[in-house]
């Protein structure tokens, strides 16, 4: 009887430790997210399930073209791509991205640009000064984000610049559905 109680106690202890570890990992390191909507098409599809690395930006700086999850409101997280970094000026003219006046290629948009109707622009023209906040350059601890589906994305063009403390983390791994399982690179 004592052996049976000891066995139960060991099982309960193991389960409590497992739940505690799962809670710590999910709270501080990694979390699942489900893509909601078409704003990141064709890179990400509606209902793709991904893993968010929540601690990366505690040890490293964000990089241009990272795909990030951020708090758009108290109830809603968005997933977008970092386009502009602190200290930079961003503009789009005739579907060309300019960072500090220099043209920057966006390889993830190549297919979309080739398949669009010649009269339709993929990204409406804008300058950083025209966005909410009217900044001349992106301030420290902020980034400019855009969705890959530029004509159907609520991003920095409407929301303004995103403070770094609103970023949940970086995501690059699609784990569901299985036929779309992949690591997203730029």
UniProtKB/TrEMBL annotation:
<dbReference type="InterPro" id="IPR019533">
    <property type="entry name" value="Peptidase_S26"/>
</dbReference>
<feature type="domain" description="Peptidase S26">
    <location>
        <begin position="9"/>
        <end position="176"/>
    </location>
</feature>
<dbReference type="InterPro" id="IPR036286">
    <property type="entry name" value="LexA/Signal_pep-like_sf"/>
</dbReference>
<keyword id="KW-0645">Protease</keyword>
<dbReference type="InterPro" id="IPR019758">
    <property type="entry name" value="Pept_S26A_signal_pept_1_CS"/>
</dbReference>
<dbReference type="InterPro" id="IPR000223">
    <property type="entry name" value="Pept_S26A_signal_pept_1"/>
</dbReference>
<feature type="active site">
    <location>
        <position position="80"/>
    </location>
</feature>
<dbReference type="InterPro" id="IPR019757">
    <property type="entry name" value="Pept_S26A_signal_pept_1_Lys-AS"/>
</dbReference>
<dbReference type="Pfam" id="PF10502">
    <property type="entry name" value="Peptidase_S26"/>
</dbReference>
<dbReference type="GO" id="GO:0009003">
    <property type="term" value="F:signal peptidase activity"/>
</dbReference>
<keyword id="KW-0378">Hydrolase</keyword>
<dbReference type="GO" id="GO:0006465">
    <property type="term" value="P:signal peptide processing"/>
</dbReference>
<comment type="similarity">
    <text>Belongs to the peptidase S26 family.</text>
</comment>
<dbReference type="GO" id="GO:0004252">
    <property type="term" value="F:serine-type endopeptidase activity"/>
</dbReference>
<feature type="active site">
    <location>
        <position position="39"/>
    </location>
</feature>
<dbReference type="GO" id="GO:0005886">
    <property type="term" value="C:plasma membrane"/>
</dbReference>
<protein>
    <recommendedName>
        <fullName>Signal peptidase I</fullName>
        <ecNumber>3.4.21.89</ecNumber>
    </recommendedName>
</protein>
